[in-house]
Amino acid sequence: MSSQIIPSYDHPDHFSPLMPTEMALGPLLERASDLIRAATALGVSAGYTSQSEIGGLLRSMNSYYSNRIEGEHTRPSDIERALQQDFSANADLARKQRLAVAHIHTEQHCEQDLSQRLRMAGDDGARWLYSTEALKQLHLRLFQELPEEDLRLVDGSLMVPGELRSRQVAVGRHEAPTAEALPRFIERWAQVYGRQRRGEASVVALAAAHHRLAWMHPFLDGNGRVARLHTHLLLHAGGYTKGIWSPLRGFARTETRYKALLQAADEHRRSDLDGRGNLSQAALIDWVNYTLDVCIDQVEFMAGMLDIQGMRGRIEAALAFESGALKSGVRPEALNALHYLFATQLSMPRADFKAMLGLGDRVASSTVSALLSRGFLATDSAYGALRFAVPHHALRFYFPALWPEAEQDAAAV
Length: 413
Hints:
By secondary structure, the chain is an all-alpha fold.
């Protein structure tokens, strides 16, 4: 195969097809329907506690995995410290910590912004994600918190957060559209994907849009992170994730295939049987199928993790380890109260939680203090209501294999 770089693109027709033909679309719509059914069932079964407290954990995990794909990740414990403004004295490690925190803050802000847009504008709030303004804001949020030294590119120039590139770039054999033509490409991208009807068609579209966004390479750097977070936000806007799953974990855990299929979808049409566009329709279909499979796999995994009855046994195992091996002051009598918090409600008054322990007031108070200290409970004030929480050191019990790197990191501390 020739290693010659593909000529520059200057017309939006050059990245067609943006969607598979109607004949090829049928099986993809069926797979998208499978995803919607599974995600809807998961959202109904997961309690409010899951959707609020687990969401914070997943943002850290998403940041870790998206940056890992770029080779810019650090240890989960380093991310935890950075969230507390504790940055390493090592310059490169501190830079990676800042990247991680910026991703977490961006995801949280954008989800909140989207929720407001959806309340005010309905489906138009989701369609806004398919706009030049949205892409610029996403890139700006990801990188605006970083100091100048973190924005310096390999050629010595500085990346400007939120600014579309103004010069030509090539990624491997793929040369992106000319900078002058880039706004027209983005406009076509927005028109095609933003007008897809809600439901299966929009889910297929968001998968295809991920590749075509990466293909356009709208920014000098950060395009992969923007594309992955954009896909996450589209799923969030559709009401599919509920803050309890994301495709980013799946993309990173199948990184070799993720990158290979993205690259394959850059290629020209292979033959007259490979669609009628400039790029390969077969490769685009492969990419969409992969994305849908990743999403379904993540939904099914979290459905098993959030099973209410199964969670009771995992909480029991975590408490047994804490009270037996660690002697941390955490007592097994906390099982019923913790499981009740997980399964049924967002928070509970301290007096009610202590009553569920079935212990004397003094012992119950010390047990609550130990649960807070060890991260099994969260609260907003010294005497505030209590919420279920998921400390990293309990991941191996609560959600085994969800974030193995964090489990290993916590075990090593």
